[in-house]
Amino acid sequence: MTRRTRLPQAEHTEHAHGAAERGVPEATVARLPLYLRALAALADRGVVTVSSDELAQTAGVNSAKLRKDLSHLGSYGTRGVGYEVDYLRHQISREIGLTQDWPVVIVGIGNLGHALANYAGFASRGFRVAALVDADPARAGTEVAGLTVRHVGELEQLIADRSIAIGVIATPATAAQQVCDRLVSAGVTSILNFAPALLQVPDGVDLRKVDLSIELQILAFHEQRKNGAALALTAEQAAELAEAVRQ
Amino acid sequence: MTRRTRLPQAEHTEHAHGAAERGVPEATVARLPLYLRALAALADRGVVTVSSDELAQTAGVNSAKLRKDLSHLGSYGTRGVGYEVDYLRHQISREIGLTQDWPVVIVGIGNLGHALANYAGFASRGFRVAALVDADPARAGTEVAGLTVRHVGELEQLIADRSIAIGVIATPATAAQQVCDRLVSAGVTSILNFAPALLQVPDGVDLRKVDLSIELQILAFHEQRKNGAALALTAEQAAELAEAVRQ
DNA sequence: GCGACTTTGTTCCCGCGTTCACAAGGATCT
DNA sequence: AGATCCTTGTGAACGCGGGAACAAAGTCGC
């Protein structure tokens, strides 16, 4: 196997520990939650067995992709029949790690942190909001989503006491890196960042980011292209005009 | 195709290689907001000119990728020098469409909708929350983020009156498709969906989704892999491990 | 004006992910 | 049991995005 791509670095897929053995492609991992949601919907409707085609349609993907994705986890289907909903659901849940309890700390209890603390989608998937932390002393002591907000000074203690491995950053951008550093040094190894800032984390720590405004900007780009025909045309005409005038 | 964007003396009429124009890769589009943010940070620090290397580092990407991305928009740099911060910023803003005003309607003013309505990142990038709508009559009439929440019955009227082209869905999953349909038939052509549901939209309508719990699930997957050796083998080897530790 | 230097814009190559198409394999019926 | 049908799992082709490397093109010093 030892592919020799002549570059001395950037090989973190290669020596990643468990990945070599059962390497599940990142793109596949990102879709597993979709399948899980689709399976839950089917189970609610009392469906016992589904074909890849049906499941794919429910999840909104191509059936070939679905089959290939599932094949990375194992051979959980029956040829000629399909997949047993409950069984497959359990297998995917186990693969993602949703069969265990994941305590999470949310840092920054502003509007967004407030919403995240109350978000039902977390609890229903094995994530438990175990601590809420904010830098504002006035906010500490208040109750949000059934939990008492603690001051950020207690961050390390809370992480240690409650075995927290996952942290969510919902602070302003200016505080994000500092909070991130403290989370990491306190032992958190997975971070979900909502602050619009570029965070640096050491190797071994996973960082994902969600930037709400970026999504809107992407939509705006395409929106502009749709109605853009007219505008771009005038722009082009203007350029041509300008050029014509110069001559 | 022979359209030439006017920039600090660009004089190649010859191989007017139709760069850019009709085809900015989706991956590039998704990074443009990052560059914009990096440029804003540089401008705040008073930087006037920046090399692709510097800018790439600020944005957290590879410099070759950055240059290729920018080349899709046009030739906005000066060889041997770099990019003029303000000029490039304006060009990207224009490309994404951030130089114009984008009225947005938010449907579903629960915790998340509340947070979105107050999100500062929108207003600072040309997005204007033009209407808040909720299905709960009790919530209609209340004030959120300086706007009066309207009942969902007024949705179509609001969209028409305020020329809204972008809609944000922050409702429960069960209401999402119905809201989506109404948005579309009222003329909205770009939708950002926060509800954990698969939405169907006709051609010509752009749909993007953000599922907060999916991000956490992806983190959980990797987290499990990290500690994975021990956790994955619980059944058989946990006992072995426990025994080994005992001795 | 000219050569050395700097940085962009582009080309080439590689690997990943998607998709098609089909062989493999189990279920069902006769 | 054997034939037929059905759906999975996978091999192979393909297109796209990423990264290294390089040529083009401008600046700067003399």
Give a topology summary.
The structure is a homodimer of 247-residue chains.
Chain A: H1 17-22, H2 26-44, E1 49-50, H3 52-59, H4 63-71, E2 83-84, H5 85-96, E3 102-107, H6 111-118, H7 120-123, E4 127-134, E5 143-144, E6 147-151, H8 155-161, E7 166-169, H9 173-185, E8 190-193, E9 206-209, H10 212-246
The structure holds a DNA duplex (30 and 30 nucleotides).
Task: Characterize the structure shown.
The structure is a homodimer of 247-residue chains. By secondary structure, chain A is an alpha/beta fold. Chain A has helices spanning 17-22, 26-44, 52-59, 63-71, 85-96, 111-118, 120-123, 155-161, 173-185, 212-246, and strands at residues 49-50, 83-84, 102-107, 127-134, 143-144, 147-151, 166-169, 190-193, 206-209. In chain A, the strands form two sheets. Chain A has a seven-stranded mixed β-sheet. A two-stranded antiparallel ribbon of chain A has the order 1-2. In chain A, helix 3 (52-59) packs across helix 4. The termini of chain A are far apart. Residues 1-21 and 237-247 of chain A have low confidence and may be disordered. The interface between A and B is large, with 70 and 70 residues. The first copy, chain A, binds a DNA duplex (30 and 30 nucleotides) through helix 2 and helix 4.
